[in-house]
Write a structure and sequence with these properties.
This protein has helices at 2-5, 11-18, 25-41, 47-56, 61-77, 90-93, 99-115, 119-126, 131-134, 139-151, 157-168, 172-184, 191-199, 209-221, 225-238, 244-258. By secondary structure, it is mainly alpha-helical.
Length: 270
């Protein structure tokens, strides 16, 4: 319905006005996302369009993070990734006067790389930023930096993650990025415990299948077989039926869990 409404005369002007009204802002962003999805479906360049709408709405970093996550994932499923178009670093190093627009491009580029597990690429991009600029990063950009470090098992990822949490509070996108990095890393000190503490934060819906997958993996690493099975089975029940790629991740995790000794309880796996 939203897509058809966008074809009516004057709809774009009305949408541009609606993003500034508190009572219409959520619906306006939904319509904006639908508009960008049309461009994605057509196989056309879309990141600058997304960034323009976020700039027009004067979106804060948290709104940008949520919007960019949703649209970057959609684009990936349609084989039209943001990384096809965002290959440089000028939007990071030279943001210009429209910081909202530049931040949106950074979010889109880095989250698309995160979805492809390209930790080294994220670190390479962010390492180019001077120290003074790093201190001004928004919490989500910092969380994506922490993801890249954690995913490569760099110890520096732990204090970076903590700083992003302190700056962001219980922001869902920040917590998911950090949980993803902790899950991807190997041999980090107290890695499973870090995952369980983060997954226990109230920002997560207790039925969130992504959070439950990360939780199940941490419980498996601790040898807590039955708890891990419960978490992975809950994730399978909660999963959207139109997420076949993620379903495969759940099946793989369940196979690893069932491979644990049946007597595994609270101690570390042997």
């Amino acid at each position: 319905m939203i897509r058809s409404l966008l074809d009516t005369p004057g709809s774009y002007a009305a949408l541009a006005a609606a993003v500034h009204r508190d009572d219409l802002r959520a619906t306006a962003f939904q319509a904006t996302r639908s508009l960008i999805e049309q461009t994605i479906d057509a196989g056309q360049p879309w990141p600058t369009e997304a960034a323009r709408w976020l700039s027009l709405a004067d979106a804060g970093w948290a709104t940008s993070a949520a919007f960019c996550n949703q649209i970057a994932w959609y684009a990936r499923t349609r084989h039209n990734s943001a990384t096809t178009y965002l290959t440089g670093t000028s939007h990071l190093l030279h943001p210009g006067t429209d910081r909202t627009y530049a931040r949106a491009l950074v979010h889109l580029q880095l989250v698309a790389l995160r979805y492809d597990f390209r930790c080294r690429s994220i670190q390479k991009i962010l390492d180019q930023a001077p120290e003074a600029q790093r201190n001004q990063w928004d919490p989500y950009t910092r969380a994506l930096h922490a993801f890249a470090l954690l995913g490569q098992s760099h110890l520096a990822g732990l204090p970076t993650a903590q700083r992003s949490l302190e700056e962001a509070g219980d922001n869902l996108q920040v917590c998911h990025a950090l949980l993803h990095g902790l899950w991807l890393g190997t041999d980090l000190p107290d890695q499973a415990e870090h995952i369980l503490r983060l997954a226990a934060r109230p920002v997560f819906d207790r039925g969130d299948p992504v959070m439950l997958l990360r939780t199940a993996g941490a419980l498996r690493a601790l040898g807590r077989r039955q708890e891990a099975l419960t978490a992975i089975d809950e994730a399978m029940e909660a999963l959207d039926p139109n997420a076949p790629e993620f379903h495969a991740d759940l099946v793989r995790e369940r196979a690893l869990i069932t491979g644990l000794p049946r007597h595994a309880g609270t101690g570390p796996a042997r």
